[in-house]
């Protein structure tokens, strides 16, 4: 969960607490807020967009993924689920060191 998401969650909880206090002030009744439903959780995950992927593999394995169409199939399913036309960008590196170097310079979602 990103910092913005955590801040938003904290703001929502503060607002909810203020509402509970105001209801108590007006009615004298203190009620707890009903927790979010499973549906709300799914919506939260849909709000998160994967834009950039760091893939660490050999050039051969990466070539196989592309040539056999596995990435195309995966991203076409992803696009239909997300109702998006543009799949995430894939940055390919061959070694863990290269991956760490890229992570220091750039942000990746996966």
In short:
This protein is mainly α and 110 residues long. The protein contains 5 helices and 2 strands, in the order ααβααβα.
Structural commentary:
There is one protein chain. With 110 residues, this protein is mainly alpha-helical. The chain folds into two domains: 48 residues, no CATH class; 61 residues, no CATH class. It is 61% helix and 9% strand. The protein has five helices and two strands; from the N terminus they run H-H-E-H-H-E-H. The chain has a two-stranded parallel ribbon with strand order 1-2. The longest helix has 25 residues. It is elongated. The two termini are 13 Å apart.
Number of helices: 5
What oligomeric state best describes the polypeptide chains here? single chain
Uncertain segments are none
Give me the Rg, rounded. 21 Å
Count of distinct structural domains: 2
Fraction in helix: 55-70%
Count the beta strands: 2
Strand order across the largest sheet:
1-2
Report how far apart the termini are.
13 Å
Determine the structural class based on helices, strands and strand pairing: mainly alpha
User: Beta-strand level of the residues, as a percent range?
Assistant: 5-15%
**Shape category:** elongated
Order of H and E elements: HHEHHEH
Mean pLDDT: 77
Query: Biggest β-sheet, characterized?
Result: 2 strands, parallel
Layout of SSEs?
Layout: H1 3-27, H2 38-47, E1 52-56, H3 59-67, H4 70-82, E2 89-93, H5 96-105
Parallel strand pairs: 1-2
